[in-house]
């Protein structure tokens, strides 16, 4: 993983390459503990999310139709999946005109050195509690970009 300007930069994406993710953080990867959501959707996708409220996250799509969005449960969060290969790359939610997000650590290329994943149970929280928690933990101002490749 490259280290630029005292930040760790991670790249990744889906299996077929239609979606790319870039996540950067000043946090040492060893101090980052992926959160494995215990809902059936995330478990079936093997998702374990990482974030940093002082970090940056962008999702780049080859085309506007490359991204499949899925909501479930309380409909508070929106899961971002590849329309072609189905890989879950990130989760986002919008609050106060800002997009917050967390990246699926398992979609990052060569992402090693993180702490062991721990279970998380957002389904036990009310929608307002989720928004409060995620506003504190997730990356603010996530960029969703369509490229012209």
UniProtKB/TrEMBL annotation:
Top-level division of the source organism's lineage: Bacteria
CENP-V/GFA domain segment(s): 10-129
InterPro entries per the UniProt record, alphabetical: CENP-V-like, CENP-V/GFA, Mss4-like_sf
Keyword Metal-binding: yes
Keyword vocabulary terms for this entry: Metal-binding, Zinc
A Pfam family annotated for this UniProt entry: GFA
Family of this protein: Belongs to the Gfa family.
PANTHER family in the record: CENP-V_GFA DOMAIN-CONTAINING PROTEIN, CENTROMERE PROTEIN V
Protein name: CENP-V/GFA domain-containing protein
UniProt organism field: Rhodanobacter panaciterrae
């Amino acid at each position: 993983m490259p280290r630029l300007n005292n930040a760790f930069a991670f790249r990744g994406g889906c299996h077929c390459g239609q979606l790319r993710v870039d996540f950067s953080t000043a946090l040492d990867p060893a101090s980052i503990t992926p959160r494995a959501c215990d809902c059936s959707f995330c478990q079936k996708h093997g998702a374990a999310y990482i974030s940093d409220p002082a970090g940056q996250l962008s999702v780049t799509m080859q085309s506007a139709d490359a991204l499949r969005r899925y909501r479930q449960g309380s409909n508070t969060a929106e899961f971002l999946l590849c329309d072609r290969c189905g890989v879950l790359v990130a989760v986002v939610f919008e609050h106060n005109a800002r997009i917050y997000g967390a990246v699926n650590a398992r979609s990052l290329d060569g992402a090693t050195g993180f702490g062991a994943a721990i279970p998380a149970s957002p389904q036990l929280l009310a929608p307002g509690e989720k928004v409060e928690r995620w506003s504190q933990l997730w990356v603010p101002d996530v960029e969703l970009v369509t490229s012209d490749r």
